[in-house]
């Protein structure tokens, strides 16, 4: 587990300023949900935390350590995307263990970690299957399994459920929430779905054009929105 501190973070693409002077403290072990309209900088922010994107200014700390110059692989962070590209010619077990194999971990350790993750995610009976033999929800669980085996200090989710149908989305929300409770790992979760944010989050961050409109517990935002933008975004039916 680790806190994530963003202190005056800025990001520019050429002359386009996407994020400016952003301050945010993500608490150790919390499930923080980032919401905001398309293009407001949610994915950019996650990619900055993961180290996949350089920053134009500010300081980023993970678990109290300044990581501005630290390579992604040294940050102990795992990211789960919406397009959960699994390796089609590898089994579930191979997909889940692949990053550990690349890291040259011993075979017995890989098997143990994969089995643990499969137990947590209810994938125990599916380890020898190939991705095309899985349902959408099962594939999404394998994608999460790939992240879990690495024991990350922080999980980043970028709209992980947006490719799933409505019913499965509801089920997966509950599963991710349960996963968070079980692992206790810090999670930063991006969605444009207000219901997802309201039902899952410890705290919600409302982003708009690269700056924060409000941070608070779901009910706090619902009862006392800081401005019309937040009221509109949280209050509108999805
Ligand atoms: P969101 O995830 O909230 O939809 P993004 O973080 O993907 O938003 O994008 C924020 C802004 O940054 C958008 O205006 C987008 O066009 C711009 N942007 C994202 N990536 C790049 C890039 N590689 N080059 C230039 N502009 C980018
Ligand atoms: Mg995005």
Automatic annotation (TrEMBL):
- Start and end residues of each ABC transporter domain: 4-234
MF terms in GO: ABC-type transporter activity; ATP binding; ATP hydrolysis activity
Specify the protein's topology with respect to the membrane: Peripheral membrane protein
**Gene Ontology annotations for the cellular component aspect, listed alphabetically:** ATP-binding cassette (ABC) transporter complex, substrate-binding subunit-containing
Subcellular localization, per the record? Cell inner membrane
The keyword Signal is assigned to this record: no
Gene Ontology BP term (one): carbohydrate transport
Query: What UniProt keywords are attached to this protein's entry?
Result: ATP-binding, Nucleotide-binding, Transport
Q: Which family does it belong to?
A: Belongs to the ABC transporter superfamily.
Name by which UniProt lists this protein: Sugar ABC transporter ATP-binding protein
Identify the species of origin.
Answer: Pleomorphomonas carboxyditropha
The shown residues of the full protein are 1 to 238 of 357
